[in-house]
Design goal:
The two termini are about 35 Å apart. The protein has a two-stranded antiparallel ribbon with strand order 1-2. The protein has 6 helices and 2 strands.
Amino acid sequence: MYSKMIHERLNRLLEDRNISNAKLAAKAGISAAAIGKILNGADLKLSSLKAIANALNVPMSFFVEEEKSNNIVVGQQSIAGAGNTLSVNSAGNPEGITTDQEAQDYKNALQIIAAQKEEILSLQSKVILLQDQLLQTHK
């Protein structure tokens, strides 16, 4: 379970920061072959995870902690939003929404929430990248 989570988060982090496998290998002091295996889902030593986390300036927990979900489920789709999973009626609207206008307003709000979440994630990635660049200039 954890190797898959580590693999996914490491791949996403490297992509967000535009860091190559070779650059990570050099920063972490791990062979490029080992990095390749880890990125393909192989198990890794705790010492390797620590070296990778240090090289990327993230806590080790970043790779293994469960992400807290605030998704709203509408019909068969899950839309990122605030709150926990809501019960929906046969029309795909949360219980208590009775008019077409309320349903449309609700769907519009979900789209706005999803767009804002994407923007926040993008900004978080940029902050992490800037922190990484700042640390590199002070070495």
